[in-house]
Every structure is written in structure tokens, then in C-alpha cells.
């Protein structure tokens, strides 16, 4: 009873967080699910949770979606994934995680400096580089999200367009991840039962988060995303130090 109640609570929070910012559900669900059910269940369960959230968000924000917002990133992903696999064979995963945590923290702290309230777009070439970097991180340590979030948050786009772009990107990568889990038999009946049990709380959280985001100004949204990235970088750094 306590286990299922905890799962419902964390999925409610995950839905609320992603409903506001457009990302973050994996960071909340994965560690709690791993503690409750073990990694073999937590990994596919978290993937399905994130996939369902991104489908919901992209459906709600479909009119804000622009293919050009994520096109350079997707092009960069193609060489990035195999590059990441090659890097993983040569470097320790903890070193890669430390580098990523440092980059995320530096970006977040820099974005919070006085005079950085207005975003400065990186441009299409930077988008391709972000795609390569994200693909490389996804192929090596499975953390392809932070560079994309930082890039999209810096483009000066309206908040709903940023959230739509994030949802589209994470939906595409999530389909690949979950399809892989299905092929390898990781999506078991237990995983599906837990997801079905938590789905109402997940949907409620996403609804509340989306409603709250509608009341947040553009500047406040960018600051909120930056604070989320700061928290993400801190969590990653803490995990590295504990290894």
C-alpha cells in the first residue's frame, strides 16, 4: 500500500513538473521507482511515463509546434548516438557524467547572472552541435536531455513553443527508447500494471502543471527552467560525488 501510494505521489509531482517546464519527469520517477521496484522495472516504467507525458503535452501544444525549432538537433543526433557509443568504450561513464553536470551548472549559473534576463539565440549551427552532443550523451550515459533544454530555453521563443519543441524532441527519442525496451522484453506485465495504476495521478499532475504554466510570464518561465536546470546539475554532481 505504501509502495503504490509513493508511486502515485511521485508521478503526480512528475506530471506537474513536466506540465510546467516541459521536462523533468524522468529525474523524479527514475530514482523513486528504482528504490521501490528495482532498476529492471524502473527503467521501462520511467520510459513509458515520460512517453505518455510528452504525447499529452504535444497534443495540447500542437499548434505551437514548429519543425524548424528542433530540426538542427535531430540532424545532429544521427552522428551523435554512434559517437557516444564509441566514446563510452574509451571513457569512464562517471567522467562523462561529471563533465555534463559541470556544463549544466555553468550554463544555469551564467543564465542567472544580472543582465542575462533576455535570451540570446545560439543559431542553427549551434543546434546541430547540441544535437551531436545530446546524441553522444544519450549513446554513452543515457542523458540526452539537458543540452537540448538549455538550447531551447535560450532561443527567445514563446514559452508554449519551447514546451512544444521539448515535447516533440522527447517524444521522438522516447519512442526509440520504449520500442527498444519492448523488443528486449523489458516492458513486462508488472510494468504495465504499475503504469496503469499511476496514470490517473500522472494525468492530474500534467493538467495542473499546464494550468499553472498558463499563468506564468515569459520571463518567469525562462527563470523557472534555469532553476530546474540548476537543480538538475546539482543532482547530477551529487550522484557523481557519491560514486
Automatic annotation (TrEMBL):
The UniProt record lists the keyword Membrane: yes
Keywords: Cell membrane, Membrane, Transmembrane, Transmembrane helix, Transport
Pfam families xrefs: TauE
Membrane topology type: Multi-pass membrane protein
Transmembrane intervals: 35-58, 70-88, 94-113, 167-188, 194-212, 224-242
Gene Ontology CC, one term: plasma membrane
Subcellular location: Cell membrane
Domain of life: Bacteria
Keyword DNA repair belongs to the record: no
Family label: Belongs to the 4-toluene sulfonate uptake permease (TSUP) (TC 2.A.102) family.
Protein name from the UniProt record: Probable membrane transporter protein
Amino acid at each position: 500500500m505504501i509502495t503504490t501510494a509513493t508511486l502515485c505521489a511521485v508521478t503526480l509531482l512528475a506530471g506537474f513538473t513536466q506540465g510546467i517546464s516541459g521536462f523533468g519527469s524522468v529525474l523524479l520517477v527514475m530514482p523513486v521507482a528504482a528504490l521501490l521496484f528495482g532498476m529492471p522495472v524502473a527503467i521501462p516504467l520511467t520510459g513509458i511515463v515520460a512517453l505518455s507525458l510528452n504525447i499529452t503535452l504535444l497534443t495540447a501544444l500542437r499548434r505551437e509546434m514548429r519543425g524548424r525549432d528542433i530540426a538542427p538537433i535531430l540532424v545532429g543526433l544521427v552522428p551523435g548516438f554512434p559517437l557516444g557509443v564509441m566514446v563510452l568504450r574509451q571513457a569512464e561513464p562517471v567522467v562523462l557524467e561529471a563533465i555534463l553536470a559541470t556544463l549544466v551548472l555553468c550554463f544555469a549559473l551564467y543564465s542567472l547572472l544580472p543582465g542575462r534576463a533576455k535570451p540570446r539565440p545560439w543559431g542553427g549551427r549551434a543546434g546541430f552541435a547540441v544535437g551531436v552532443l545530446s546524441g553522444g550523451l544519450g549513446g554513452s550515459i543515457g542523458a540526452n536531455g539537458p543540452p537540448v533544454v538549455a538550447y531551447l530555453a535560450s532561443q527567445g521563443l514563446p514559452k508554449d513553443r519551447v514546451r512544444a519543441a521539448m515535447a516533440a524532441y522527447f517524444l521522438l527519442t522516447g519512442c526509440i527508447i520504449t520500442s527498444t525496451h519492448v523488443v528486449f522484453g523489458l516492458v513486462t506485465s508488472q510494468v504495465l500494471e504499475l503504469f496503469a495504476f499511476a496514470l490517473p495521478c500522472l494525468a492530474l499532475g500534467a493538467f495542473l502543471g499546464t494550468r499553472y504554466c498558463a499563468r506564468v510570464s515569459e520571463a518567469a518561465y525562462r527563470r523557472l527552467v534555469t532553476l530546474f536546470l540548476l537543480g538538475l546539475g546539482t543532482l547530477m554532481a551529487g550522484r557523481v560525488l557519491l560514486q
